[in-house]
Amino acid sequence: MKEKIISKASELFLKLGFKSVTMDDIAGEMCISKKTIYKYFCNKEVLIEESTSMVHKQVHEIMDTIVAKNYNAIHENFEIREMFRDMFKNNTDTSPIYQLKKHYPEIYQNILSYEIDQCTQCFKENIEKGIREGLYRPELDVDIYVKFYYTLIFHINENTVSESEAQKIELEALEYHTRAMATEAGVQELEKQLKRIIN
């Protein structure tokens, strides 16, 4: 039952926002009493922590699946971006990350420190792969470019209220990041990916 509550709560939080979903809403959606929820979670904050932790686990599992498909480095980044777009497409137009930062800053900070570690590793592996494939310039300082990119991405998500706006700016950031690193072959692959997602 605990897992079912976390799963339903995660779905509602992403769809309607962390602030607006109440314990009553979750109980109503699941046709259970609020008392049942409180049996497993002493308050809403604990449920939010468990839910965000589950969503992040799912996100990284999907990312691992995408990486395992062995696309080239640039294609891989676009596939990951599409996965995020699909995950958050049903929600209200308020970015879940922005809401979390605003209303539950402590939970947000905990996620952020964990997420930066995970993303640093992911971005680093992608850049090293792109260099091996001849899509990114070999003389790049990988650690600096990793910092550039996650600073861009986290800044966008923390400070953009609208989810659709955040996704639009993220696509621009991905193009900006890729062009900064790309060889001639990399630019051609980038143009191909941009064409693919626009059509």
TrEMBL record:
Name of the protein described by the UniProt record: TetR/AcrR family transcriptional regulator
The organism's place on the tree of life at top rank: Bacteria
DNA-binding residue intervals: 22-41
Keyword DNA-binding appears in the UniProt entry: yes
PROSITE patterns from the UniProt entry: HTH_TETR_2
InterPro entries linked to this entry: Homeodomain-like_sf (IPR009057), HTH-type_Tx_Regulator (IPR050624), HTH_TetR (IPR001647), Tet_transcr_reg_TetR-rel_C_sf (IPR036271)
Pfam families: TetR_N
Keywords: DNA-binding
Lineage start: Bacteria, Pseudomonadati, Bacteroidota, Flavobacteriia, Flavobacteriales
Segments forming domain HTH tetR-type: 1-59
Gene3D superfamilies named in the record: Tetracycline Repressor, domain 2
PANTHER family: ACREF/ENVCD OPERON REPRESSOR-RELATED, ACREF_ENVCD OPERON REPRESSOR-RELATED
Keyword DNA-binding: yes
